[in-house]
Amino acid sequence: MIQEFKIIADNLPDKIRVLDVGCGDGSLMVELIHKKKIDARGLELDYENVKQCIAKGLTVIQGDAETELHQFPNNSFDCVILSQTLQAFHKPEFVLDELTRIGKKVVVSIPNFGYWRVRLSLLINGKMPVTKALPNTWYNTPNLHMCTIKDFYELCINKKIEIDSVFGVNSNQVSKINKFNLGRKNLFSELGIFFLNK
């Protein structure tokens, strides 16, 4: 299991209802079902990923989160998860509003464009960086809205979304992020994982 999924699974209670938005091939859902006895459902745009999920026995519907989330009633899930996808939406703020409407809790993970290697690569090479966490070149990346952990933290504050906890991930190292160490962790974390309350 990848480090991100382990952190998410470890910080969710057992036997809750979860919607995994942009669930990919269903790997996180499988972990949550097996390890936490979670009732997990998925929403996925890519047809091939949907087929893989169904082959694994997962409950997944094909759809675009920017246009399909309105179908889910308010507070219909205990938790909604969006893993490394927010930056790929045309309207990320709208999607975040929908997530907080649907879920009593929300987990959002983002690749951190403020990571020091990304900053250094841009400074030295003068080109958009390609890293392990950001493997695509500028012209074929799905990322439309580059943001940092600090950017997303401030967005949550501005929208009055309660931040329960934030984790910074760098290779296999995991650390907690708070308002006092935000600048430093923004510099040294490849990935941010936010656990949000309404």
Keywords for this entry:
single chain, 198 residues, alpha/beta, Rossmann fold, 8 strands
Outline the structure in words.
The chain is built from eight helices and eight strands, in the order H-E-H-E-H-E-H-E-H-E-H-H-E-E-H-E. It is of the alpha/beta class and 198 residues long. It has one domain: Vaccinia Virus protein VP39 (Rossmann fold), CATH 3.40.50. It has an eight-stranded mixed sheet with strand order 3-2-1-4-5-8-6-7, sandwiched between helices. The longest helix is centred in the middle third of the chain and has 11 residues. The mean pLDDT is 90.
List the helices and strands and how they pair.
Elements: H1 3-10, E1 17-21, H2 27-36, E2 39-44, H3 47-55, E3 59-62, H4 65-68, E4 77-83, H5 92-102, E5 103-111, H6 116-125, H7 149-158, E6 162-170, E7 173-177, H8 182-188, E8 191-197
Parallel strand pairs: 1-2, 1-4, 2-3, 4-5
Antiparallel strand pairs: 5-8, 6-7, 6-8
Q: Quick check: average pLDDT?
A: 90
Helix proportion range: 25-40%
Which CATH architecture?
3-Layer(aba) Sandwich
What assembly state would you assign to the polypeptide chains in this entry? Answer: single chain
Number of beta strands: 8
| Rg, alpha carbons | 16 Å
- CATH homologous superfamily grouping: Vaccinia Virus protein VP39
Total domains: 1
* Spans of at least 5 consecutive residues with low confidence: none
Number of helices: 8
Q: TL;DR?
A:
The mean pLDDT is 90. The protein has 198 residues and is an alpha/beta fold. The longest helix is centred in the middle third of the chain and has 11 residues, at 92-102.
